[in-house]
Specification:
- The protein has a 6-stranded antiparallel beta barrel with strand order 11-12-17-16-15-18. A 5-stranded parallel β-sheet has the order 2-1-3-4-5, with helices on both faces.
- α2 runs parallel beside α3, α9 crosses α10 and α10 packs across α11.
- The chain is α/β, with parallel strands linked by helices.
- The longest helix has 21 residues.
- The structure holds manganese (II) ion (MN).
- Manganese (II) ion binds next to loops.
Length: 502
């Protein structure tokens, strides 16, 4: 999958009131800050020092240039001095890239012994930022406000998360999702309005008959199939029966054929996310297991049973977290451990969990699948290391999209689970299972999620702001009573909103 070049622009607001000398100093200070952000390890993109803007025309021009530049995924806007904000109105209304209002100043400390009125005129972010904030509030523009000195690591961390949200939003705007077959029949939460998704997120969801995929699946004696099964042998732990000459080798070959067919199909159409359903596999020998797991490990989004919303979310979160340790996978809340002393959720799926979250070298295994009526599918089996993690879901309520995030701790399994032949992860949800599951269910959260150890709650919340969708968090501070109030208040607010967004 090709990685595109992405950058951020650092644009500084000022005005002509203070004279040329002051504007020269403003530009020098802005360049110093942009350089520091560009060099900061917390910010995963290049930061380009943009202009100091002082008139409505200059602001409209820079916003228009940002809109037209495919490499620019967002703007960092800083008011060095007072920048009378009516100047910003028409430019900001035309801007279709996300922006962060960075409320900082060049100096960290007040120079107690030398401060005079020249210094005060030059360094007035404290009120310049408020003037800018008024206009962005008045215009109801989606944005993130980040406050603090630009050298502070916690401030840079927050800018890093905003950058990941901007990367995710840019990826969302150009994403195409392929669906092999339709939804699992009768399932409600995996349905949704694909026109609304195109309008809200900008991603396209295209359906295909399974025969179009089957036509691209190579024969078993194709050299590419042999090369791929060799790669499996060198990448995964596997028993002799799965290797060439073994009585289960044909089952591994079947997944190699499916993987090659899927890769060709997805690359030909520039699809970066896809769905399958076990109810529509005509012409495929097995439910795609290993094939899906390996495609997810390469960055493709996946959703089972036709779940295109989760598939898109998995891909976008993979891109958002690509500079961070850990990984992201399609996931399903499967079953509970309800021991009150150690309450846990076991997450897994029929087969399709991404090895980007595997704790060690995965084992390739072949076992029967009790649903679907197909041959025994090959799949990777592994555990997940203990780590802070989260589950995110995106649902379509008919009138709007809602994202729900539950922070969890992935924990070591208390036992080996020798009879469970799928990749799995155990987690303890925050604040506790009783609260977390009740809130999730009151909110209508899906059984499918995007599980991640590499993307933060904060980055997802900023992403939801860019998409102008509802965002609900279940974390250590959540109580059922307060959460239910938030649901009711949000329902009221969205019904009052003219276009179903805030
Ligand atoms: Mn499922």
């Amino acid at each position: 999958m090709k990685q595109q070049k992405r950058t951020l622009w650092f644009v500084t607001g000022s005005q002509h009131l203070y004279g040329e000398q002051t504007l020269k100093q403003v530009a020098a200070d802005a360049n110093a800050i942009a350089r520091a952000l560009n060099d900061a390890k917390q910010i995963p993109l290049d930061v380009t020092a943009g202009p100091v803007v002082t008139t409505p025309e200059e602001i409209r021009t820079v916003c228009g240039r940002a809109n037209a530049d495919p490499e620019c995924v967002g703007l960092i806007l800083w008011m060095h001095t007072f920048s009378p904000a009516k100047m910003w109105v028409t430019g900001l209304l035309s801007l279709n890239k996300p922006f962060v209002h960075f409320h900082t100043q060049h100096n960290r400390d007040i120079p107690w012994d030398t401060i005079d009125m020249d210094f005060m005129n030059l360094n007035q972010s404290a009120h310049g930022g408020r003037e800018f904030g008024f206009v962005t509030s008045r215009l109801e523009l989606p944005r993130t406000v980040i406050v603090g000195h630009w050298s502070e690591p916690t401030v840079l961390d927050e800018l890093g998360d905003w950058t990941r949200a901007a990367i995710g939003w840019d990826e969302t705007r150009q994403l195409k999702v392929a669906r092999f077959g339709d939804n699992m029949r009768q399932v409600a939460v995996t349905e949704g309005d694909k026109v609304a998704a195109l309008a809200r997120f900008g991603y396209e969801v295209d359906g295909f008959g399974i025969g179009d995929l089957v036509a691209m699946v190579p024969d078993a004696d194709d050299p590419a199939v042999r090369a791929l099964t060799k790669e499996y042998e060198s990448t995964y732990a596997m028993e002799a029966s799965l290797r060439p000459g073994g009585d289960r080798h044909a089952d591994v070959v079947a997944q190699a054929r499916i993987e090659l067919g899927m890769r060709r199909f997805l690359e030909a159409g520039d699809y970066r996310a896809f769905t399958t359903t076990f109810e529509d596999l005509h012409g495929l020998p097995q439910l795609p297991g290993l094939a899906v797991q390996r495609l997810m490990a390469d960055g493709y989004g996946f959703g089972g049973e036709g779940d295109w919303k989760t598939s898109a979310l998995v891909h976008v979160m993979k891109v958002m977290g690509s500079d961070r340790p850990g990984g992201t996978s399609f996931m399903e809340d499967y079953t509970y451990h309800m021991d009150p002393a150690n309450t846990l959720v076991l997450g897994a799926h029929m087969l399709e969990i991404c090895p980007s979250i595997a704790s060690a070298k995965p084992r390739l295994e072949v076992h029967p699948l009790s649903i679907g009526g197909k041959d025994d599918p090959a799949r990777l089996v592994f555990n997940v290391d203990p780590a802070p993690a989260l589950n995110a879901t995106l649902i379509d309520l008919g009138s709007r999209f809602r994202m729900i995030v539950n922070e969890v701790d992935a924990v070591a399994s208390p036992a080996e689970l020798p009879k469970l032949p799928v990749a799995r992860v155990l987690w303890r949800p925050a604040p506790d299972l009783r609260t977390a599951a009740a809130c999730w269910i009151y909110a209508g959260g899906a059984h499918h999620t995007s599980f991640t150890t590499s993307v933060s709650t904060r980055a997802l919340e900023m992403y939801a702001e860019m998409a102008r969708i509802e965002f609900l968090l279940i974390d250590r501070d959540t109580t059922v009573r307060e959460f239910r109030k938030e649901l009711r208040w949000n329902d009221a607010a969205y019904r009052l909103s003219s276009d179903g967004r805030f």
